[in-house]
């Protein structure tokens, strides 16, 4: 299926030559970025490496085209090829996820969530209000009806997972626009087990009666039972939305099936395409037929004009995800996360929920006497790229935090396996157990800095580099 290494090298080299002739600074930075990605042990749970085919599908004249509207119904002429591309991509998404409707235009995961919220409000609040008033569209409403509708639209309730339990800012939290659109309440996790307590979610939903129940996370290391959450949503008349931005690859790869596959249970599913799904940076919405028309109005009502070049890359990535090899990849992501988790636990790390059944592991670095900020820095100095993250009921708050989130999608793409994960667990444990909280210039303890032995950092970085050298990134791309 794949093209030859020499073809791929030639494609990227030529592209860079063309860019270099205009702005060498940019061509050099693109080249340097490859070197830097090749040299870093990337454990950021939300990142991955897209294939050369995905990358190349993005860099061309499709970018020149305006294509507001939907397939076959555009506000601009000359969209035949964009129609073809969006039709291919949506077809792959429908087949891959078993969904009746797929919308490929969102530019990112956050945009996909806004489209979904708009669609839910349009369908459940705006449409009945228009009908009551005998109006076809909002412009036909009287000032009085419009003012009532605006008030109603801005006063709906959303129930989502709390931020410190791993939920996302766009699930109704105050600093985000979703927190201004909705009156939000959240569910957390059980203080003992660290797991979602579905009985508490049910109780909260019964009392709060949300219009929207949102599930999905950026930092919860476990499966979620979407069948139970749908039952709860039905019981209180809520629309059930799942944001699978992080774990879409595990759904596509059939690791999450049955009750753990959100697509058959949710009314509407949003995702990014660049995390575990391994496509271009972007978003997507999947939904039941009753929401399809409202979702399709995402552009231009919520989104700016679609990016046809990125939709082309999404279509390529979705075609890749339909290959049997993608299911093997998804299973290896989880096997690797479990090996990492086992390796850390065996060495004495404290993990939120005591393990993982998805692509990510959350270390409670309080066990090492560190804040997340200190741990992140100590690991980075040793060549290990992670990010700090709040843990449930975090004593250090959302900025310093007490957690380190690590994920395996990227290193799994690179080809690392469970034996390498155990070695990495050893390196992480060694760095964290040697690092000491730092002090400010006046000698007071500092949550931000840490003191680590530079010799240890250098040695671990060297070991990490040796490990990576066995698994070249983009082996088919030689920029000379
Ligand atoms: C990453 C993420 C997003 C945001 O995606 P962007 O493409 O960065 O906009 C939204 N929701 C969840 C749960 C995420 O993890």
Your description of this structure?
This protein is α/β, with parallel strands linked by helices and 480 residues long. The protein folds into 2 domains: 63-321, Type I PLP-dependent aspartate aminotransferase-like (Major domain) (Aspartate Aminotransferase, domain 2), CATH 3.40.640; 325-468, Aspartate Aminotransferase, domain 1 (Alpha-Beta Complex), CATH 3.90.1150. 48% of the residues lie in helices and 14% in strands. The protein has helices at 5-22, 24-39, 52-58, 80-97, 109-133, 143-153, 177-181, 198-208, 226-236, 248-252, 289-296, 298-301, 308-321, 324-347, 372-381, 397-400, 409-414, 418-434, 454-469, and strands at residues 41-42, 69-70, 73-74, 101-103, 156-161, 182-187, 212-215, 239-243, 268-272, 283-287, 360-364, 384-385, 387-389, 403-407, 436-439, 445-451. The strands form 5 sheets. Strands 4-10-9-8-7-5-6 form a 7-stranded mixed sheet, sandwiched between helices. A 3-stranded antiparallel sheet has the order 11-14-13. Helix 7 links the parallel strand 5 and strand 6. Helix 14 runs parallel beside helix 18 and helix 18 (418-434) packs antiparallel against helix 19. The model has no long low-confidence stretch (mean pLDDT 95). The protein binds pyridoxal-5'-phosphate. The site of pyridoxal-5'-phosphate has 14 residues, from helix 5.
